[in-house]
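R.M. (postdoc): so does anyone remember the format we settled on? I'll just put the structure tokens first.
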């Protein structure tokens, strides 16, 4: 009888210890809920059948961007993002050439809060602007060129939470299926250009919901 009592006591202690260790093992390592702020650097490239000279001679460059997101839950997050890219204008004999992207959309987050690595995919709408100033033309003069309009934004990436609430981010995205009105020296050319751009980004995000 004494032996059975001791056995049940040891069994109870063992179960209690196992439950405590299990609770310690399963812990939150990430989150995608609530308000978040992000900052990222990127490298952008672009192409166009309409602007063959421009995309061949000034087809890529570095940039920086900022992002605001709000996670409705651990799966769905709405976001707004602005990116600015400076391209090398030396080969087009211009003063400057840059792109800007204003993007809004929905991000779909995968995996669980018990994992530090969270992959995601995103879909949205982007307003894309390209602006080249004082570009040398064939007549020896200088032209100011601008094209802008909306397009589809498609992206995917990874977030790795080094510690709550901070994550390192890696992202790739395309901005495509857009037709952009073209203006030269302030005059509308009544022409539309096809423009597709892509970005590879890396940065950091902070989920403010974990701070308060």
């Amino acid at each position: 009888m004494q032996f059975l009592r001791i056995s049940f006591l040891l069994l109870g202690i063992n179960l209690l210890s196992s439950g405590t260790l299990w609770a310690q093992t399963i812990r939150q390592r990430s989150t995608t809920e609530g308000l978040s702020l992000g900052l990222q650097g990127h490298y952008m490239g672009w192409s166009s059948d309409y602007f063959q000279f421009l995309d061949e001679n000034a087809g890529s460059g570095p940039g920086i961007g900022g992002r605001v997101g709000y996670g409705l839950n651990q799966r769905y997050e709405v976001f707004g993002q602005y990116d600015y890219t400076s391209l090398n204008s030396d080969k087009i004999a211009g003063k400057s050439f840059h792109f800007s992207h204003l993007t809004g959309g929905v991000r779909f987050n995968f995996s669980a809060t018990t994992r530090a690595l969270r992959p995601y995919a995103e879909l949205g709408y982007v307003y894309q602007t390209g602006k080249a100033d004082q570009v040398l033309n064939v007549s020896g003069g200088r032209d100011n060129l601008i094209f802008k309009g909306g397009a589809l934004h498609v992206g995917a990436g990874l977030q790795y939470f080094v510690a709550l609430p901070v994550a390192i981010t890696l992202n790739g995205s395309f901005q495509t299926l857009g037709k952009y009105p073209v203006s030269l020296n302030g005059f509308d050319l009544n022409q539309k250009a096809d423009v597709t751009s892509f970005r590879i980004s890396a940065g950091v995000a902070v989920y403010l919901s974990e701070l308060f």
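R.M.: ...and that's the designed sequence above, right after the tokens. Also worth knowing: Helices lie at 2-25, 52-57. The longest strand covers residues 142-163.
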